[in-house]
Design a protein that fits this description.
The chain is mostly beta strands. Helices cover about 10% and strands about 45% of the residues.
């Protein structure tokens, strides 16, 4: 067959293009290296996919990959850490790819129990607060600065007293008699945080956390569920607060200096009637009781005549308050080489409250070292000395007295210039006494980290938390009235807390799809509290013992030598623990965690010496799934769930065995008598905890947050109920069999970046928590068996922990001004009776949270934090005494009273004694809903205006950056509560009181309002 030239040409063209096609679509081996564009380091774990196919691989530890692909294909590089990037092959068989990392909330490193994790691998509920958010405000202690910043964490600041403690509740309260506070762990060291080391001396609880320097803190992580706190086993029921302090960083020495200079006043002044008005009210009550003429002298307190009383008008509030000053300075240094990293920080601060003679002085120094002895052996040192000097006042001699029995008709001085002693005179007290508590706290630990083989880390650590505390009291001769002169007293206290643990952590990555992290550990702890069996005192002194240590030491030796005093152990407990945790990550999107801990405690009986606490949790990174990888709206999305059992062992020691002591004599000789009923079955209170959460970041990471649901059920509650008189004992510790307490709630946390430009950045965020609390079962325990504080609250089935037990107040009879009550059946009666009491009101709020904003414009920054509480009640335990019949001050809000027939008033007619109200015997029994108020409030907690000084203005100075700011704390409060302050925690008598009565007030000092100027320098 003859082929024409034209056909030959066509055949050549077809062969040419068919060759191209075969070359283009044949599969070739394409290899390459992927690096991070920021630092040039290998980008491991990046998924490499041939576009339009299911062919995929991942980069290895060196960032290398190999994939079969046509030379004209396109590769897709994707990872949560680096986003998504498409690259055309363009005939290359070897490629070098540089990709840009995209930091998301999942890449944040958080501290967990005995280690750290990236948030993407966290399966539990953890709230993180950075240290700068704690140190920037003038809170009395670092834990108070957590308020409104961590979802699910309710913080109630104690009071306006300097150095006061806070009540912190993580997802409600599940304990009754056992402690309800979280476990505090500083750099792996469980520390002493008991606010009852000194009871409620002086009308306040001492706060051992106040001496810790907030400026040393790098971050605080709050472990809220069993998935996070389960590794702490028997002490995780109330949550765990992990405090991580600052450490050295690589580079030449860098210094930071900051200060706070400011003024302190009160948020709100309770308003009382003046002297003339008080006597008018006294006269009104006198006439209401059927008397005529002027009030009789025997009914005027202090033995004053009507004329004398009416001529006096002392403002006792003014006499005990002032404008306080804050003066704080912090200096720190960080330095690091290849082998050694050092952080050194020191602080001095003196914060006065608005109450005269009351201030808290903090002195602290911290040294943290990390030294690499060899490549696989590292030693770390954590060491801190914190000194807290609390210049105290007796609350009931000063600010509380000014709100109660210090009447405006009482003078300060007598006619001869001496102090008036008609009643407690705070001017006399403040001038002639001194009251100081000094805490010297040494916190230190040494850890060795050894890696014998790759990915195996063995860590051994030992630590000491030592607290030496001296409570000093001094009274001059004017107070003692003793010929021996003034007296100086000291109450010493020593708390020693040893801790040692050994852990082995092994990371096993068999392939790119699977990753395991194994942790095994053991821990032991011993806590010991010692004091002297009484005060160390010396007569004839003109100053406290802290000003003359020789006299104290001589007095101590003398008392010990004569046998009247001895150093005694009042509490001693030991823990031994074994724990483990397994983390398994599959395909970088499915994470599973299992933990278990066995704890043995000397606090529990021989039949239940050990407890076992397991927990399981999981997380699913939905944003890593293919069906969401191309979704531009979602940057990260993680679903997590957990279930576990945690415990509570926060009770005094020595309660499981029969105790004996000698407090009485027989025939002149001491006798031994039983003082405690033993219970060998005493065991841990346990909490069954379920949590379900969703963490997300959307719209190019502009909107981020979390939503959580939890359900916690406490069983085997540790109780100390009253016993029948026939037993010969008042109380005894036991577990409540069959009892159940429920805490169930929802949490939502959001942060939205509204505007982000070169010169302007605006973000808005906030959190809200809803907690439902109910005693599901209580067994045979009746409502009067367990009481909070001064007979304020009760425990009963179907009601929250801490429910008020009161007579319901219906109103005032407009005809005669007498109070009308409701009996148990809701029927109106004018006869008051404690038999009419019903369970009403609650101390726990329905909702709590905070709203924050941050506006940055060029060098300026404006930050605010509003906190709020919705629902719940405040019971004012002092209002029932604030009437003329009880000879107490009268608050102006209580003046809405019946005066004449036909008046529609809130409060009944005045009387010289509440016993004139039918059925009432004393003011102590005057417990009714008359003084039960709505606890809701909104508060401008923090407002900060800062300015970063431009580099051009400091370029000729040694400073690398400088910032000035002004801030306010507790600036505005909106509340319906008529008393001084809706945020209250009075002095508690014991942990049961603290659990059941956190929203009960009794002459509690109002919160402080502060105005601060700050300067921050880096050089």
């Amino acid at each position: 067959m003859k082929i024409s030239p034209k056909q030959i040409w066509k055949i050549c063209i077809m062969l040419f293009f068919s060759g191209l096609s075969v070359t283009a679509f044949s599969q070739n081996s394409i290899s390459g290296i992927v690096t991070n564009s920021k630092d040039g380091l290998p980008a491991k774990g990046v998924t490499v996919t041939l576009k339009g196919s299911s062919t995929a691989t991942q980069t290895n530890e060196l960032g290398a990959f190999n994939i079969s692909a046509p030379l004209n294909g396109t590769l897709i590089f994707s990872s949560v850490s680096y986003g998504r990037q498409e690259v055309a092959i363009n005939g290359k068989i070897s490629m070098a790819i540089s990709i840009t990392s995209t930091t998301t909330s999942l890449d944040e490193v958080v501290v967990i129990g005995y280690g750290t994790q990236k948030r993407r691998e966290v399966t539990g509920a953890i709230a993180k607060v950075s240290g700068d958010k704690l140190s920037s405000v003038a809170a009395p202690s670092f834990e108070a600065a957590l308020q409104g910043k961590a979802v699910g964490v309710q913080v109630v600041q104690g009071s306006g007293l300097a150095g006061s403690g806070s009540v912190i509740r993580i997802r409600g309260v599940g304990s009754i008699s056992a402690g309800g506070d979280p476990l505090y762990v500083v750099d792996g060291i469980p520390i002493t945080s008991d606010q009852f080391l000194r009871g409620d001396a002086g009308g306040m609880n001492q706060n051992p956390l106040a001496s810790i320097n907030p400026n040393d803190i790098e971050s605080v992580e709050v472990l809220k569920d069993a998935g996070a706190a389960g590794i702490y086993g028997s002490r995780g029921a109330n949550g765990v607060i992990l405090i991580t302090t600052k450490r050295g960083k690589s580079g030449k020495p860098k210094f930071s200096y900051s200060n706070k200079l400011g003024l302190v006043t009160y948020t709100n002044k309770p308003e009382f009637v003046n002297g003339k008005e008080y006597m008018q009210l006294k006269q009104e009550a006198w006439q209401n009781d059927g008397n005529v003429g002027e009030v009789g002298s025997n009914f005027i307190p202090g033995g004053l005549t009507f004329a004398q009383a009416s001529s006096n008008n002392t403002d006792w509030w003014k006499e005990v308050t002032r404008i306080g000053f804050i003066n704080e300075h912090n200096l720190s240094m960080t330095y690091g080489t290849k082998k050694l990293k050092t952080f050194l920080g020191t602080t001095y601060g003196n914060s006065e409250s608005y109450i005269k003679r009351n201030s808290y002085e903090r002195q602290a120094v911290r040294l943290n070292l990390d030294y690499n002895i060899i490549d696989n052996l590292k030693i770390s040192l954590n060491s801190a000395y914190n000194k807290g000097i609390n210049n105290r006042i007796d609350n009931y001699q000063t600010i509380a007295a000014a709100q109660s029995n210090l009447l405006p008709i009482y003078p300060i001085y007598n006619a001869d210039g001496t102090y008036s002693t008609i009643s407690g005179n705070p001017v006399r007290y403040l001038n002639e006494t001194k009251y100081r508590n000094t805490d010297n706290r040494y916190l230190g630990g040494v850890a060795l980290e050894f890696s014998p083989i790759k990915d195996l880390m063995i860590r051994a650590s030992g630590s000491l938390d030592y607290l030496e505390s001296f409570d000093d009291q001094y009274e001059s001769k004017i107070i003692t009235g003793d010929a021996r002169g003034g007296i100086a007293k000291r109450y010493p206290l020593w708390v020693t807390n040893y801790n040692a643990n050994l852990t082995a952590n092994y990371l096993w990555t068999p392939n790119t799809q699977n990753k395991f992290n194994f942790l095994l550990g053991t821990e032991t702890q011993e806590s010991k509290i010692k004091n002297t069996n009484g005060d160390i005192y010396s007569w004839g002194q003109e100053e406290p013992l802290y000003k003359n240590k020789r006299i104290y030491q001589d007095s101590l030796n003398r008392f010990i030598d004569n046998g009247s005093r001895k150093k005694q152990v009042v509490d001693n407990s030991t823990f031994v623990s074994f724990f483990g945790r397994i983390n398994y990550t599959l395909k970088e999107k499915y994470v599973f965690q299992f933990s278990a801990r066995m704890d043995g405690s000397s606090k529990f009986g021989p039949n239940n010496k050990y407890g076992f606490f397991p927990a399981a949790s999981a997380a699913w990174l939905l944003s890593e799934e293919k069906f969401l990888q191309n979704c531009k709206t979602i940057n990260s999305l993680k679903l997590r769930a957990s279930y576990g059992i945690v415990g509570n062992s926060n009770i005094p020691t020595g309660r499981y065995y029969y105790g004996y002591g000698s407090t009485r004599n027989y025939n002149g000789s001491p006798v031994l008598e039983p003082n405690n009923i033993g219970n060998p079955d005493l065991k841990w209170e346990t909490l069954r905890n379920f949590d379900l959460g969703l963490d997300f970041s959307l719209f190019n990471n502009r909107l981020s947050g979390e939503f959580s649901y939890y359900r916690k059920v406490t069983v085997d509650q540790l109780l100390e109920p009253g016993l029948g008189a026939s037993t010969g004992f008042q109380k005894s510790w036991r577990n409540l069999e069959g009892g159940k307490i429920l805490n169930e709630g929802l949490e939502l946390s959001l942060n939205y970046l509204l505007i982000k430009s070169k010169d302007l950045k605006i973000s808005l965020g906030g959190n809200i928590s809803r907690n439902y609390n109910e005693v599901l079962k209580l067994g045979p325990i009746g409502p009067d068996a367990l009481q909070g504080g001064f007979n304020d609250t009760r425990i009963a089935e179907g009601y929250p922990v801490g429910t008020n037990f009161l007579v319901r107040y219906f109103g005032v009879d407009p005809k005669d001004g007498l109070p009308i009550w409701l009996d148990r059946n809701g029927k109106q009666t004018k006869n008051f009776s404690l038999d009419h009491r019903v369970l009403v009101g609650k101390v726990l709020p329905d909702f709590s949270g905070g709203i924050n904003s941050d506006i940055q414009f060029k060098g300026f920054e404006l930050r605010s934090l509003w906190t709020f509480v919705s629902g719940g009640n405040i019971y004012d335990g002092s209002a029932k005494y604030q009437n003329v019949g009880n000879n107490w001050n009268v608050r102006r809000d209580l003046l809405d009273r019946w005066v004449k027939p036909g008046d529609m008033a809130k409060y009944p007619r005045l009387t010289s004694s509440v016993t004139n109200y039918p059925g009432l015997g004393t003011n102590d029994n005057y417990n009714s809903t008359m003084f039960l108020y709505d606890a809701s409030f909104v508060r401008l907690r923090e407002l900060v205006l800062g300015y970063n000084i431009p580099q051009g203005l400091i370029k000729r100075t040694p400073f690398t950056s400088a910032k000035v700011s002004v801030s306010g704390y507790n600036l505005l409060t909106f509340s319906k509560y008529p008393g001084a302050d809706p945020e209250i925690t009075r002095d508690f008598q014991n942990p049961q009181d603290r659990n059941m009565s956190p929203n009960i007030t009794y002459l509690t000092p109002t919160q402080s309002k502060t105005f601060i100027f700050s300067l921050n320098l880096n050089f």
